[in-house]
Amino acid sequence: MELDLGAVRAFVAVTDERNFGAAADRLGLTQQAISKRIAKLEADLGVPLVRRSRGGAGLTKDGEAFLAHARGLIGLADQATESVRRRHGALRVDVLSTKLASTELLRAFHELHGEVAIDIVTSNGLRSAHPALVRGSIDAAFARVTGTLDEAITWAPAYLEPMHLLVGHKHRLAGRKQVRFAELAGSTARMPGNVAGSEWAEFYLELAADYDIRIDNSGPNFGDEYLMEKLSQTDEWITFGGEKTRQPWHPRVARIPITRPAPVYPMSLLWRRDNRHPALPSLLDHVTASYRRPDPRDVLLPAADRAGFGLSG
What is the Cα–Cα distance from 103 to 101, expressed in whole angstroms? Predict the structure, then answer.
């Protein structure tokens, strides 16, 4: 029996995301395609691996036993791919999503350096980008830096993205041209895409705690279009979106800038100190030249992020 590597990769993605829709977004596939790959893998192995429920996707006992081996297979495949890729010189850059400002920053770099071949990799953030940097399967990654990094990895601030408020037209703030973050006290922010334990989920929890804002990431993540539709139907809850994040437009959803001091999402560029890719210095120069340090009084950030971006004190 030969295992389908695409099916194994789908299994690992579903395990990490705990949601078929989020796994599909991560791999650039449809949810139906993910389901078919998981079904094929289970059929090949002769045992169920994934347990589906209203709360998301979990693993069976056989799935838990297979997971470590699945990660090993993917790791070996990525290393094999990397050995070939290095011969062709593409700069491999990890982003959380192609809808985020990090991709726009890469696009601007590409317009200035069209001679540089770029491979854009979408992941589930620091928890996959960090080990990928360590083993050398990517050259750089955009992520919020948290915790302790491997000593081989270094980073620089990339951007601080102002957050916007999104509310349905029935909401009390829908007619406003701007809003203060403190005015959201007592609100519930619906954010099903905030994967528990991820650096972006922790960012919102840390920031909202000081302002009595509840972050609700329960239930399946059915995508941004579904979220916007549900948001348009309620006058109770809210959500947030980055200033440069591309989100689907909805005729009954208002997007409102949050005035200064404004919450900003901190994104950094990470790379290996010993990486010798010839295009990496140009990317680093582009990112560092693009970053503008704001007045510390104008932004809201968790304390750890303020220190990393030179905004403490």
Answer: 5
What are the tens digits of pLDDT across the range 193-251?
A: 888 889 999 999 999 988 999 999 988 888 899 999 999 999 999 999 999 998 889 99
- Residue pair 47/62 in contact (Cβ under 8 Å)? The answer is yes
CATH architecture label of 160-263 = 3-Layer(aba) Sandwich (3.40)
**Domain-wise residue ranges, the chain:** 5-83, 88-158+266-299, 160-263
What CATH fold (topology level) applies to the domain 5-83?
Arc Repressor Mutant, subunit A (1.10.10)
Domains 5-83 and 160-263 share a fold: no
pTM of model > 0.90: no
Burial class (CB in 10 A: 0-12, 13-18, 19+), 289: exposed
Cα-Cα-Cα-Cα dihedral sign, residues 42, 50, 73, 221:
positive
* CA 97 vs CA 125, 297, 305: distances in Å: 9, 29, 21
